[in-house]
């Protein structure tokens, strides 16, 4: 009688290992693809611009204002001379690289301090652009955007690209890396608004996002004081 040969049981370990191999390869492929996409996104976002390359070199020629404490009605800066600051327009703006003076122009001024990473600034700017495009700024009132809070590690960098995307074409002045202009004007947060009359005196300061009706009221009041 011939002996019956025993069949070897299947190698379960090898089969399981073989079935896992394609899954591992797919997982590695997904990770590599994600890294490549991230690298392409970073390289195309303009984030290679450094703070040092974008920052201005503002020169302060008068005394700073006290810090804003939150209440426009009891603001101790009201009636004080607005600090005279000379700087440059931010790259990419209509007055890029040109000398800009705020605080002593002989003309009523509205200053709005903006940081590109600030959510309230991101909400304020398109509304401000629409307001300007509608021709609401009085002819005898200057509005200048003070670009401050420069930080290449935070979202929405660089700020000049942000201004361009939102369609802001008005005058700008860019702060330095230390926030010298913001400190000089006593900024407590962004957005930050400062109204200056034709005599160079502060008539209003406000922190936070303002409705355009309030901006209109400030602008109209300045226009009447010139």
SSE map:
Elements lengths: L11 H32 L7 H4 L4 E2 L24 E4 L10 E4 L6 E6 L4 H15 L8 E6 L11 H8 L5 E3 L5 H5 L7 E5 L5 E6 L4 H14 L1
Parallel strand pairs: 4-5, 5-6
Antiparallel strand pairs: 1-2, 2-3, 4-7, 7-8
Précis, in short:
The chain has 226 residues and is of the alpha/beta class. The protein has six helices and eight strands. The chain is globular.
What does this protein structure show overall?
The chain is 35% helix and 16% strand. It has helices at residues 12-43, 51-54, 119-133, 159-166, 180-184, 212-225; strands at 59-60, 85-88, 99-102, 109-114, 142-147, 172-174, 192-196, 202-207. The strands form two sheets. The chain has a five-stranded mixed sheet, with helices on one face. A three-stranded antiparallel sheet has the order 1-2-3. 33% of the residues are buried.
Radius of gyration: 28 Å
Number of strands: 8
Main sheet: strands, sense, barrel: 5 strands, mixed
Averaged pLDDT: 86
SSE-based structural type: alpha/beta
CATH class of the largest domain: Alpha Beta
Q: Examine the secondary-structure arrangement and name the CATH architecture of the largest domain.
A: 3-Layer(aba) Sandwich
Tell me the span between the first and last alpha carbons.
122 Å
